[in-house]
Structure formats: structure tokens, C-alpha cells
Specification:
Layout (H helix, E strand, L loop, with lengths): L4 H16 E2 L17 E2 L10 E2 H7 L7 H13 L6 E2 L5 E2 L7 E2 L5 E2 L22 H16 L9 E2 L2 E2 H10 L11 E2 L18 E2 L1 H20 L3 H21 L19 H10 L4 H16 L4 E2 L2 E3 L30 E2 L3 H9 L3 H18 L13 E3 L4 E3 L5 H4 L2 H7 L4
Antiparallel strand pairs: 1-2, 3-6, 4-5, 6-7, 8-9, 10-11, 12-13, 13-14, 14-15, 15-16
Helix pairs in contact: 2-4, 3-4, 4-6, 5-6, 6-7, 6-8, 8-9, 8-10, 9-10, 10-11, 10-13
Length: about 425
């Protein structure tokens, strides 16, 4: 990667965000119009995911291309649609008080589970009794980003449906089940939820790596928010929580490969994404962080981790079996498709960051491959082009969802870091 690539990446990111905007009154195909009162940013352009997804939006905020006004609308809309009481769905879902929607339709309907765009009554099913765990922590990040980074601390005291935004953040944090001894996110079959939405088809139980990483970050942010709100006791509780997670997570998920496992029970395969994210977050002890970086670099050089600059969830050769990447997958996805072995660009930035700590040459090579694929498949060349894709695999020329925003917006900040470009 060279400095001349940066303008290309910046412009593509800006164009992707613009292609993903749905302004008031606008429709996406047959979905809409947007009647939420402000601009929504969906996960991509063309016909990609016609609704507002909390995690994709949150993971794109650090690209710096979403205005404070758009951020405020997204934050308050999400807060207004937070579950204010426990309820059950006809599919057996348990939406607990404080739960955050997985996605929100253009007419302001909260859908708490994957699998449907707008079936409010039918939502739920194979994804677990509880809504995905990550959205509570992404909601906290969205609020922290606007209140702290953009200096809108007054929003934290704003009533939303009779409950202050600050209190809604506390409720969201508390809605996710945890292990009282370690602080880690933990679930059983009876209270299972998705650990991280980019693995929502994976059936995980036990202690959960990715959700715990997000909880650690959220607890740190909630400590800061609690201090702003002069809630000293709560700030101390959050401090104790993130310290406990930091002490217990590295050993809980350690794996003989040098990486980290995704969970401690079902589908405990090595999680390349989570391993890279742990390095990126800075939660690991120095020696373990270096070991994870080195293991990822080795896997990359062995061509077991990446393809065209995109990243597989489980490194090649570490699959559960010849039939499936993960021990248990819902939705019938065969091996080497979607989250069961396809390659994704969303985590490429974390992976570049992590690999660079152990092998700078390999990190730059991965970045070069990522950019080369974007240039070759650039969707702006015409309808027959689709890069950035959500995911892909060379087997059967598998491609899914063109013009996918997070495949660039979630990567750009780390590439700018790599070349020290502000």
C-alpha cells in the first residue's frame, strides 16, 4: 500500500456512505419510505439490506464520514425503540427490558432478531431466545461517540420516552447475560443470543469471546459516562467489571494455536476475527498479544487466513469438520459460504493492525491485496461490478451483497493508521 491509495480509499468510503443514505421520504426498492424523521444509513447501496442496522452503522462511525446530525438521529431513534418491558414473541423469543433492536425498518419498527426485515410478530426463531448481545454494546458506543467525541454530553440527560438516555445505556448494558465471577458474557441454550452479528448464524454457547470484547469496551465507556453523570458508585462498578474481564478473558479463550477460541462450549473453534480484534482493542497482556499477532501472520503467509484481502472467520485447516467450518450453524449455510467459511473484508482493518505488530511486510501485503481487489471490482465502474462485497469465496465464485459499506468504512481507519495518514 502506498500513499496514492489513500485518496482512492477515502473517496470510495465517502461514496459508499452516500450510497447507503436513506433520506426522509426515500425508498429502497419496495421498502420505505423512510418516515423516521431523519436520514438513516443502511449497511450498503443498491438493494443491500433495506433497513437501519445498528452494528453496521456503529462499526462505520470511525471513518469520520457520518455527520453529527445523522448520528444524533440514529442514537435517539435506537433509544426510543429500546425495549421498555420484557416481552415474548410467538417464536419463543425473550426480549428483555433494555434490549436493543438488531435493526429498524424505515417506518420505525424495531426488529430484535436477525432473519426478517419487517415481520415484527414473527421475529425470532433459530437465533436464540435472547436478541443478539452485541447491539447493546454498540448502542453504548454510538452514544459515547456523540456525547464524548462530539461534545454533546447534554444528550446523556435527555429524557427519551420518559427515561434519560444515560439510564437507557445502563439498561442496555444490563440486558446481556454475564458470568458474575469473570464478567465475561456467558449463555446457555436456554438464554442463548448471538455473540456478534457477523456470526449470527453460528450457534455459540458458554463464555463468548467477541461479545466479551465488546462488553469490555462498553464497560470502559460506561465508566466514563457515569463520571460525567456524577454517578460515582456506578462508575466504580463498571471499572471493576472491565478490570475483571481484562484479567480473565486472555486465559479463558487461549488456544494451543496461539489464537483465541470463539467460545467455551458449542462452536469453540478458533476465531481469527476475535483474535485480531483482541489485539486491536489492547486487552491482551503484551506477550500474548505478540503471540497472537505472530500466529495470525504465520497463517496469512501460509494462505490459510485471507483471500483477496478478505478474512475467513476460522483459519483453513481448523474447521470443525469437512462439512462445516463451525460446530453448529443455523440457516443451512454450507461450508465456504457466508459466515461458514467465506471471506469478509469487514475485519481486514483489525487483521492488518494485528499482523503489523508481528510482521509489517505481511501487513502491507494484505493491505495491497485488499486494495487491488477493490480497484479491480470497483462498483462505480458499472452494474456488472460489485466490490466491495459483503463476503466471497473462490469455490463456486460465491459472492454476496455488493456495495457493502462496512467492507471499506470499518477498514479505512486502520489503513490510515498503517501509513500514518490523518
Amino acid at each position: 500500500m502506498v500513499p496514492k491509495d489513500i485518496p482512492f480509499l477515502r473517496q470510495m468510503a465517502a461514496d459508499l456512505v452516500e450510497a447507503s443514505r436513506v433520506r426522509p421520504g426515500e425508498m429502497v426498492g419496495t421498502y420505505g419510505p423512510n418516515t423516521t424523521g431523519g436520514t438513516l444509513i443502511r449497511p450498503g447501496g443498491r438493494d443491500c439490506y433495506p433497513a437501519f442496522w445498528i452494528r453496521d452503522y456503529a462499526m462505520s462511525l470511525d471513518c469520520g464520514l457520518i455527520t453529527p446530525e445523522e448520528q444524533e438521529h440514529a442514537l435517539l431513534l435506537t433509544a426510543r425503540l429500546q425495549a421498555d418491558a420484557d416481552r415474548h414473541t410467538r417464536s419463543g423469543g425473550q426480549i428483555l427490558r433494555g434490549s436493543i433492536a438488531d435493526h429498524i425498518t424505515f417506518d420505525g419498527l424495531p426488529i430484535f432478531y436477525p432473519g426478517t426485515l419487517d415481520d415484527y410478530e414473527g421475529q425470532g426463531g433459530p437465533w436464540g431466545p435472547l436478541p443478539p448481545f452485541d447491539n447493546a454494546f454498540f448502542f453504548i458506543f454510538i452514544a459515547w461517540k456523540l456525547a464524548i467525541f462530539h461534545g454533546r454530553e447534554a444528550l446523556l440527560s435527555m429524557p427519551v420516552n420518559g427515561v434519560t438516555l444515560g439510564e437507557r445505556l445502563h439498561l442496555a448494558f444490563a440486558s446481556v447475560p454475564g458470568d458474575p465471577q469473570t464478567g465475561l458474557v456467558k449463555c446457555t441454550r436456554a438464554n442463548r443470543g448471538v455473540s456478534f452479528g457477523f456470526m449470527d448464524t453460528v450457534y455459540h454457547t458458554g463464555k463468548l469471546l467477541f461479545a466479551s470484547l465488546l462488553k469490555w469496551q462498553a464497560a470502559r465507556r460506561m465508566e466514563e459516562i457515569s463520571h460525567i453523570l456524577k454517578e460515582t458508585e456506578r462508575a466504580q462498578q463498571y471499572r471493576e467489571t472491565h478490570q475483571r474481564i481484562q484479567e480473565t478473558l486472555p486465559g479463558t479463550f487461549s488456544h494451543p494455536s496461539g489464537l483465541l477460541g470463539a467460545s467455551t462450549d458449542l462452536s469453540q473453534q478458533v476465531d481469527a476475527w476475535g483474535s485480531a480484534y483482541a489485539v486491536y482493542c489492547g486487552i491482551l497482556p503484551w506477550q500474548q498479544s505478540r503471540a497472537v499477532s505472530g500466529a495470525l501472520a504465520d497463517l496469512y503467509r501460509q494462505e490459510r487466513l485471507a483471500w483477496n484481502g478478505a478474512i475467513r472467520h476460522v483459519p483453513v485447516g481448523m474447521d470443525f469438520s469437512e462439512e462445516t467450518c463451525w460446530e453448529r450453524v443455523v440457516g443451512g449455510f454450507r461450508r465456504d459460504t457466508y459466515q461458514n467459511g467465506a471471506y469478509w473484508s469487514t475485519p481486514t482493518g483489525w487483521m492488518i493492525y494485528a499482523i503489523e505488530k508481528g510482521d509489517q511486510e505481511a501487513a502491507f501485503q494484505l493491505a495491497d491485496e485488499y486494495i487491488a481487489e477493490l480497484r479491480a471490482g470497483d462498483y462505480r465502474q458499472g452494474e456488472s461490478f460489485g466490490s466491495p462485497w459483503e463476503c466471497a469465496h473462490p469455490q463456486g465464485n460465491h459472492r454476496q451483497n455488493p456495495v457493502y459499506m462496512a467492507s471499506v468504512t470499518a477498514v479505512l481507519p486502520e489503513l490510515l493508521y498503517l501509513v500514518h495518514d490523518d
